């Protein structure tokens, strides 16, 4: 019988047996002399070395047998099987490779050394059966090996056990050495090499056989060391088994892309990556991995290696920040490169179609246009959208109206629009099948804007439950230098760690451990780690394990001929004493500077030019720097030589970048300050001279031009005669930055432009001065630098030639006042400006004046159709258009909608209101004012509850939420959020769903610090929780998360909320608080309390609101109930109820869907008060049917409960219980478990009685 195990297992058994034998000797040491013990230990070591020789020679034989097969190059250790027969003989063979004849000479050599027999490599037909028995055989063998030492205490018995367990040899190691005296070791080497035995394996055999003359640092000391080397050789045959002369360079070192060490760090990284790739992310938490380390620790390589080797099908977008590039442009360039690569790959067509579909589903046409402006590479994906929208904008321009308001396009909220676009883009790009790794590399060079973008991308969408994918399958990765952090960066990291929406994995990459660096050097030199260990000791000591430093120190040894490839020995060799005496620079930059100084001058010049540019340079820049083919080819040739020196890497035909950013820093650092300035200026002037300034090509390199000119200026290199030209270019770059919401870059460009002006310029440069100071003031405000904004505005107001030229500045100033809640001063300035524009306007407006304006406007519109207004002439009076801006009416479209609200409030003319509020929306769309469309659309949704199903408008408000986010209109976003929460509660939507959505909106408002929206939303949310059955208003829960969001210890309950509203005279908030108390009292059947809060609500009334309809309904039902309970006031309450019924008989004409069931219920209660019970029952049932038909499940439950009360009052307990049961079912379906429980307790007590 033959037992089959793997070679790996067999070697492990040898190691185990060696250790146990030594343990046995240790136990015997007490009874032996020291001399005896040393002899026994030496004999044991010799015996295991003899076994190792046998293993190595058998391995040689198996490899030689397989040399004729191409598969031999892919042999790994697990390809080998050890067959142990009953006699204890071991045979090694390959599993699948055929035997190669003609090995007689090799067999003769091996037999001469070990007297071992050979076995054929023909596949064993019983292998399947043997596999089935393998685990059992392994267990038996382990027991045999384990018992061999313990059962045999004397040396002879123990020696016999080894022969049974493993291959028997007829000659000891000493006999083999004696035989080899006749044929030298080198002769054996030659014989083995002549048969193609790899050099490393020959060296292993000869080092095993040769006891004397072996370097003490590299000699074998145990079978464990031999096994490790054997496993290293065969586990990576392409590195160690095949000679480097045939498979690698013999003139320079190649470190490749292998990740050495980092086992624990990689496990942490892959744990986060695995969570992202799963399809069970119930909590929707985002995963962020932060990788830190000193320069050269291998942060970028670490991330790239793990992502590329993953099995999850990752797509990667890599944004690598750079000191000389605008940070946001680095991010957009990374996304552009990603889409260019995807679109160039025909196999990705299905994936691209999915991305297009997702973006079209989640973004409006105007949002897609904005995204295309940000990422030009995706314009080809949306030709129909761009064609349609551009056509509309062209039409509006022809009519004399700008498509966008200049100030609105640069508003303080537009960066939120950018965040929203990127969030939707990431959601479209990633999925479970294609998870995304978004890598923000070198964050120490990112600005605050990019850190805010990263934070926003990891935020939960405020209504994320509605999205198919909220970017959950995106792994966010950031790397940074641990010695170059700043307070701002650390502050962002702290926020990430404190966030409940983000799981942060922190990974610190230190220097490589000694074992890891030895593995690295071993594989690079293609030598076993045993042989490279002495060299590694020195390298480790000099580099402290820094990966980048190790690489360049080793390369410097090659450069200095201390480390060479020996053609005779077919291996790398080194002078260990010379390595010891080689000094290493104190910093990596010093090392690299020395390396660069040794290069030819033309290569260094090329690297200097490249270091002045961005992280990657391709032909789009080079063709303007070197216009003649000869000069360009010469420059490219220099870059190619640098590629050969492992300084640059080349991608595609003409794109170059430094292998590491430290090399770029080093190339830049070797220049003096003056040379840096001259180099930047030459690049900038070449780009200006050779690219036409008014072309798309020049627009594409505008930032490169301006950055070079500005960089030169900082080093004192410029040309004063061209300062006005340079200022104009900075103005252009700043405006482009504003368009993409990169306000920090915009501010740097505007500052540079103003500095180049050297003071306000009149004459031909007046307009440019005006634009620069206007824009500089705007972006200062957008960057919250109010002091700088005021400085620019003072100069603007002092030098502007006329009042109209100051208006842009006034608009910025007033917006700043409003943002700082200085409304009083802002209004005084607005009134003053309006008077200057010829428009009288009073702050003290009373309802009578407002009513008169509504009547006047209604008279003006009388006889005009909606089409007449939409197709009317566009306003040409610039002063009037400015007047509208300062009234916050960007055009007549919003004016129509405000008129509609006035008609509604003062005349209750619903049809007129709806007519013109929709006309306002159509007018905005016809004007192409993209930034206004979400706002006016939201107002249509808010007003449409009169005549459209309430449930449908919930979905419309969700859409408005996303659209308002996209344009950055946070003021109206809060209005939308409040209405969404209120309607979710009142329209019969499942309360559990409503609670989740409203909680998400609450946290969304908190994230954007809209505290004015939090107050009414918290009140609404508490009502939902109470109906569900949660009490958030008890004393022991004062610090619950809802109130904790406010950050105000005085507002810690509903009472505190109402008290705050009354003390601050916040009528709208007080009205909201009273309504929520009314709602809870009503549903709790506390009708007296409900009537009280209904009256309080009415006292706070300022203008018509959506809850008014329900206040009327709740008060009407409460009044009818009180009329039957309070005999003394029955007539008064009945009048109140009849008044509510009268109103609802009017409402139902507008929408029977929304109001019919409520009207029928009021009629039922009215008949009950009058004693007409049969009519009342009929109306109750009709109300139940209508409520169910129109999906108001909560009001169907209400009608059933009230009908049950009527039956109970008239002694029909059976019918009452049936109605109560139906009501309870409806409440449970609604999610109002508190109401269902109350009803259950009430009916249970009645049954028990």
Task: Describe the structure concisely for a colleague.
With 1249 residues, this protein is mainly alpha-helical. Helices cover 65% and strands 5% of the residues.
Q: What would you say this structure looks like, in words?
A:
This protein is 65% helix and 5% strand. It is mainly α. A five-stranded parallel β-sheet has the order 5-6-7-4-8, with helices on both faces. The protein has a three-stranded antiparallel β-sheet with strand order 1-2-3. A two-stranded antiparallel ribbon has the order 9-10. Helix 34 packs antiparallel against helix 35 and helix 45 runs antiparallel to helix 46. The longest helix is centred in the N-terminal third of the chain and has 32 residues. InterPro entries: AAA_16, Hybrid_Histidine_Kinase, P-loop_NTPase. Pfam families: AAA_16. This is AAA ATPase.
Number of helices: 60
**Coarse shape:** flat
Helix amount: 55-70%
Largest sheet: 5 strands, parallel
Radius of gyration over all CA atoms, rounded:
41 Å
Strand line-up of the largest beta sheet: 5-6-7-4-8
Distance between the termini: 87 Å
Strand portion, in percent? 5-15%
Unreliable stretches: 68-72, 97-183, 390-412, 464-468, 1032-1039
Average pLDDT taken over every residue:
76
Structure classification: mainly alpha
Total count of strands: 12
Salient structural properties:
mainly alpha; single chain; 60 helices; 3-stranded antiparallel β-sheet
């Amino acid at each position: 019988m033959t037992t089959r195990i793997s070679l790996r297992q067999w070697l492990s058994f040898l190691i185990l047996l060696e250790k146990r034998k030594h343990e046995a000797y240790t136990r015997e040491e007490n009874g032996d002399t020291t001399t005896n013990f040393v002899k026994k230990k030496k004999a044991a070591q010799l015996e295991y070395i003899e076994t190792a020789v046998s293993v190595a020679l058998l391995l040689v034989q198996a490899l030689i047998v397989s040399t004729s097969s191409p598969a031999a190059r892919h042999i790994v250790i697990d390809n080998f099987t050890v067959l142990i027969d009953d006699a204890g003989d071991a045979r090694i063979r390959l599993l699948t490779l055929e035997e190669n004849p003609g090995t007689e000479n090799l067999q003769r050599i091996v037999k001469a050394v070990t007297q071992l027999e050979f076995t054929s490599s023909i596949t064993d037909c019983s292998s399947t059966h043997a596999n089935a028995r393998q685990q059992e055989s392994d267990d038996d063998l382990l027991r045999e090996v384990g018992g061999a030492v313990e059962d045999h205490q004397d040396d002879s018995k123990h020696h016999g056990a080894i022969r049974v367990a493993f291959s028997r040899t007829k000659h000891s190691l000493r006999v083999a050495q004696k035989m080899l005296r006749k044929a030298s070791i080198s002769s054996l080497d030659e014989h083995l090499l002549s048969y193609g035995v790899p050099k490393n394996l020959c060296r292993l055999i000869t080092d095993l056989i040769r006891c004397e003359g072996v370097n003490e640092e590299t000699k074998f000391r145990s079978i464990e060391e031999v096994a490790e080397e054997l496993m290293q050789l065969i586990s990576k045959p392409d590195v160690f088994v095949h000679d480097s002369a045939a498979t690698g360079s013999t003139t320079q070192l190649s470190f490749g892309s292998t990740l050495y060490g980092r086992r624990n760090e990689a496990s942490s990284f892959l744990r986060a990556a695995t969570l992202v790739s799963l399809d069970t992310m119930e909590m929707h938490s985002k995963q962020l991995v932060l990788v830190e380390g000193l320069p050269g620790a291998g942060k970028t390589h670490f991330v790239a290696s793990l992502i590329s080797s993953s099995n999850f099908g990752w797509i990667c977008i890599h944004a690598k920040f750079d000191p000389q590039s605008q940070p946001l442009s680095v991010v957009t360039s990374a996304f552009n490169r990603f889409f260019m690569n995807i679109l160039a790959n025909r196999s990705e067509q299905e994936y691209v179609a999915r991305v297009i579909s997702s973006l079209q589903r989640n973004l409006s046409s105007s949002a897609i246009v904005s995204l295309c402006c940000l990422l030009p590479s995706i314009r080809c994906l949306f030709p129909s959208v761009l064609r349609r929208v551009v056509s509309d904008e062209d039409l509006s321009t022809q009519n004399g109206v700008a498509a966008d308001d200049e100030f609105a396009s640069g508003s303080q909220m537009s960066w939120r629009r950018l965040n929203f676009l990127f969030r939707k883009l990431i959601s479209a790009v990633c999925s479970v099948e294609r998870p995304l790794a978004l890598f923000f590399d070198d964050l120490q060079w990112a600005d605050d804007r990019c850190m805010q973008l990263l934070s926003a991308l990891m935020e939960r969408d405020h209504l994320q439950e509605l999205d198919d994918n909220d970017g959950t399958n995106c792994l966010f990765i950031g790397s940074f230098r641990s010695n170059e952090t700043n307070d701002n960066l650390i502050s962002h990291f702290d926020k990430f760690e404190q966030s409940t929406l983000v799981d942060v994995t922190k990974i610190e990459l230190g220097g490589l451990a000694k074992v890891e660096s030895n593995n690295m050097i071993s594989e690079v030199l293609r030598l076993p780690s045993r042989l490279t260990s002495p060299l590694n000791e020195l390298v480790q000591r000099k580099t402290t394990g820094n990966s980048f430093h190790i690489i360049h120190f080793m390369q410097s040894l090659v450069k200095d001929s201390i480390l060479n490839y020996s053609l005779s020995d077919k291996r790398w060799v080194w002078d260990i004493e010379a390595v010891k005496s080689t000094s290493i620079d104190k910093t990596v930059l010093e090392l690299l500077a020395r390396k660069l100084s040794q290069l030819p001058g033309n290569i260094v010049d090329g690297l200097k030019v490249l270091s002045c540019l961005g992280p990657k340079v391709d032909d789009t820049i080079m063709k303007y720097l070197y216009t003649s083919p000869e000069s360009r080819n010469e420059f490219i040739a220099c870059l190619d030589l640098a590629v050969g020196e492992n300084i640059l890497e080349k991608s595609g035909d003409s794109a170059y970048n430094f292998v590491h950013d430290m090399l770029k820093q080093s190339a830049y650092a070797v220049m003096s300050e003056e040379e840096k300035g001259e180099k930047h200026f030459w690049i900038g002037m070449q780009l200006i001279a050779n690219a036409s300034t008014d072309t798309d090509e020049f627009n594409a390199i505008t930032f490169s031009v301006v950055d070079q000119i500005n960089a030169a200026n900082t080093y004192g290199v410029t040309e004063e005669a061209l300062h006005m030209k340079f200022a104009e270019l900075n103005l252009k770059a700043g405006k482009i930055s504003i368009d993409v919401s990169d306000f920090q870059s915009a501010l740097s460009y505007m500052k540079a432009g103003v500095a180049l002006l050297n003071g306000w310029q009149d004459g031909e440069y007046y307009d440019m001065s005006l634009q620069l100071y206007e824009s500089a003031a705007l972006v200062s405000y957008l960057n919250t630098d109010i002091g700088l904004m005021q400085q620019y505005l003072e100069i603007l107001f002092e030098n502007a030639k006329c009042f109209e030229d100051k208006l842009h500045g006034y608009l910025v100033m007033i917006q700043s006042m409003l943002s700082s809640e200085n409304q009083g001063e802002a209004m005084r300035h607005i009134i003053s400006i309006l008077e200057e524009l010829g428009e009288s306007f009073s702050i003290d407006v009373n309802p009578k004046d407002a009513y008169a304006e509504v009547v006047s406007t209604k008279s003006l519109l009388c006889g005009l159709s909606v089409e007449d207004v939409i197709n009317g002439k566009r306003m040409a009076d610039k002063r009037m258009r400015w007047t509208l801006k300062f009234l916050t009416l960007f055009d007549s479209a919003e004016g129509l909608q405000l008129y509609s609200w006035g008609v509604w409030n003062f005349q209750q003319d619903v049809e007129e209101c709806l007519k013109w509020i929709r006309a306002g929306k159509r007018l905005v769309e016809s004007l192409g004012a993209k930034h206004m469309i979400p706002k006016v659309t939201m107002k249509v949704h808010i007003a449409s509850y009169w005549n459209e199903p309430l449930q449908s408008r919930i979905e419309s408000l969700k859409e408005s939420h996303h659209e308002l986010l996209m344009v950055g209109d946070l003021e109206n976003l809060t209005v939308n959020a409040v209405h969404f929460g209120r309607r979710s509660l009142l329209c019969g939507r499942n309360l559990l769903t409503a609670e989740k959505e409203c909680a998400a909106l609450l946290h969304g408002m908190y994230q954007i610090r809209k505290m004015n929206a939090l107050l009414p939303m918290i009140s609404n949310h508490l009502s939902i929780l109470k109906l569900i059955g949660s009490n958030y208003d008890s004393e022991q829960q004062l610090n619950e998360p809802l109130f904790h969001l406010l950050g105000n210890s005085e507002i810690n309950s509903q009472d505190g909320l109402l008290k705050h509203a009354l003390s601050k005279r916040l009528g709208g908030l007080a009205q909201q608080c009273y309504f929520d108390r009314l709602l809870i009292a009503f549903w709790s059947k506390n009708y007296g309390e409900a009537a009280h809060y209904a009256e309080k609500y009415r006292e706070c009334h300022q203008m018509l609101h959506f809850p008014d309809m329900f206040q009327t309904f709740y008060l009407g039902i409460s009044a009818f109930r009180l009329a039957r309970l309070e005999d003394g006031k029955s007539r008064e309450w009945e009048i109140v109820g009849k008044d509510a019924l009268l109103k609802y008989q009017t409402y139902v004409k507008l929408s029977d869907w929304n109001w019919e069931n409520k009207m029928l219920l009021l009629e039922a209660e009215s008949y009950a008060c009058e004693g007409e019970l049969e009519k009342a029952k009929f109306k109750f049932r009709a109300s139940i049917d209508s409520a169910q038909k129109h999906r108001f499940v909560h009001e169907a439950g209400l009608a059933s409960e009230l009908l049950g009360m009527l039956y109970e009052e008239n002694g029909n307990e059976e019918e009452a219980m049936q109605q109560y049961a139906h009501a309870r079912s409806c409440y449970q379906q609604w999610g109002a478990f508190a109401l269902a429980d109350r009803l259950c307790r009430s009916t249970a007590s009645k049954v028990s009685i």
